[in-house]
Amino acid sequence: MRLAIAIAAFGLVLGAPIVAPTSFMNQAEAQTTATLPAAEQASVDAAIDAVLANTALTADQITQQIATIVQNSSNPAAAAKRVAAKVSSTPGLSTATIQATGAGLMQVVTNLQSTDPSAASNIQVTVALSSSADFQMGYVNGPTTVTQLGGNNQQTGGQQAGGQQTGSTQTPVVRRTTTRRTIVPPRPRIPTTPIVPVIVEPNPSQAGSPT
């Protein structure tokens, strides 16, 4: 699917609409009519501008925030058009920021393919019609982390926020116990050979003189 979008995008960017299939062109015509209510469009534009202007955000954070803005709007296809327009009209954006923004739309398409395939298809057309190669490349490469948006069941990598279950395993803690060593005094050796007392006989020369 991503390869087909890339091929169609390059065909349209090069000004060769004949290469693109008829169904793709029909989707492009329908996509141009996707709009947001004026009040919502202003809030969506402000949210997109805030994300693109925040240089402290990482690429993954930009991807997640753009995806949230688009999917939470009343018309994701129209919101995706606002994202593409902002990327092409905002000067000074880094390549990483632009690609992260495209990856955000890829995440929305992944989430909407089963629930709203028409909106997902229109977002694909928006990417194909974009004049930014970096934007299209970010979409083709997709996000590094896919989050299932909507409801309270968000899955990010190995973490499930709804049930607060993580895919990480707990490492068992091995506790060391200290064993005291009791010193036993050695037993006295019992001689095996009997000890014979030596009797000292008196020396007659040392005896007193006879009376």
Task: Describe the protein in words.
The protein has 211 residues and is mainly α. The protein has a domain at 38-137. It is 50% helix and 3% strand. It contains eight helices and three strands. It has helices at residues 2-13, 22-31, 38-53, 59-71, 76-89, 95-112, 117-129, 133-141; strands at residues 155-156, 159-160, 165-166. Strands 1-2-3 form a three-stranded antiparallel beta sheet, with no helix packed on it. A hairpin with a 2-residue loop joins strand 1 and strand 2 (159-160). The termini are far apart. Mean pLDDT is 74; it is low at 9-19 and 151-169. Residues 148-158, 166-184 have a biased composition (Low complexity).
For the termini, the CA-CA separation is 143 Å
Order of helices and strands: HHHHHHHHEEE
Biggest sheet features: 3 strands, antiparallel
β-strand number:
3
Radius of gyration: 42 Å
* Spans of at least 5 consecutive residues with low confidence: 9-19, 151-169
**Residue share in helices?**
40-55%
Q: How many DSSP H or I helices? A: 8
Average pLDDT score = 74
β-strand percent reads under 5%
- Helix-strand category: mainly alpha
* Gross morphology: rod-shaped
Spatial order of strands in the largest sheet: 1-2-3
